[in-house]
Write a structure and sequence with these properties.
The complex is a heterodimer of chains A (116) and B (113). Chain A is built from no helices and 11 strands. Chain A has 116 residues and is mainly β. Chain A has one domain: Sandwich (Immunoglobulin-like). In chain A, strands 2, 4, 5, 6, 9, 10 and 11 form a 7-stranded mixed β-sheet that branches. Chain A is globular and about 45 Å long. Chain B is mainly beta and 113 residues long. Chain B has one domain: Immunoglobulin-like. Chain B has no helices and 12 strands. The chains are: A mainly beta (116), B mainly beta (113). At the A-B interface, strand 5 and strand 10 of A face strand 5 and strand 6 of B.
């Protein structure tokens, strides 16, 4: 089945040690999103790619970076994780274009990041 | 700027009883509205969406929602709740064309025996 896959499901890192989270999709969607979700809160959009165009949210810390080497993959890099970065990280995709369904986002199962 | 309010943080419903989760939005034009469900430790699953047309929309798992423009609401309903419906529910609003979604803070549904 076509889907959005996030790896790993659980990631433990040390304070200040760089970490990379992975997202892949088989939906051939042109937009990929990264959200941060802390406990009992709404998902917060960090950034997204529309094809190769990177769109950063104004309040996303510089500590968070992203790469999209091709249509299928997108990575979230946290350069120096702090304790406050412990959260669930959700990847989503959508297909934007004329005549297509209006920005329906499909989510992966998420990566739970712990920072020790 | 668009915003979404889900006034209920937690709701407890007896199994078999009916359910209504509230969602109010603020948006200047015609909104696109969504309900997502999130089980513990999982991603978000789309329940239903409203773009235009019939204001009562049907979704998966027996859920429905009604768009009421005059009340800026998009409440989610289910006539008979099952224990497996226990999860967190998020309402979201988007706009026509290419736009990101704005989520509400979510409502946690607890189902009692």
């Amino acid at each position: 089945d076509a889907m959005v896959i996030q790896n790993p499901r659980y990631q433990v890192t040390q304070f200040g040690k760089p970490v990379t989270l992975s997202c892949s999709q088989t939906l051939n969607h042109n937009v990929m999103y990264w959200y941060q979700q802390k406990s009992s809160q709404a998902p917060k959009l960090l950034f997204h790619y529309y094809d190769k165009d990177f769109n950063n949210e104004a309040d996303t810390p510089d500590n968070f970076q992203s790469r999209r080497p091709n249509t299928s993959f997108c990575f979230l890099d946290i350069r120096s994780p702090g304790l406050g970065d412990a959260a669930m990280y959700l990847c989503a995709t959508s297909r934007i274009g004329q005549g297509l369904a209006k920005n329906i986002q499909y989510f992966g199962a998420g990566t739970r990041l712990s920072v020790l | 700027a668009q915003s979404v309010t889900q006034p209920d943080i937690h709701i407890t419903v007896s199994e078999g009883a009916s359910l209504e989760l509230r969602c109010n939005y603020s948006y200047g034009a015609t909104p696109y509205l969504f309900w997502y469900v999130q089980s513990p430790g999982q991603g978000l699953q789309l329940l239903l969406k409203y773009f235009s047309g019939d204001t009562l929309v049907q979704g998966i798992k027996g859920f429905e929602a009604e768009f009421k423009r005059s009340q800026s609401s998009f409440n989610l309903r289910k006539p008979s709740v099952h224990w497996s419906d226990a999860a967190e529910y998020f309402c979201a609003v988007g706009a026509e064309g290419y736009s990101t979604l704005t989520f509400g803070k979510g409502t946690m549904l607890l189902v009692s025996p």
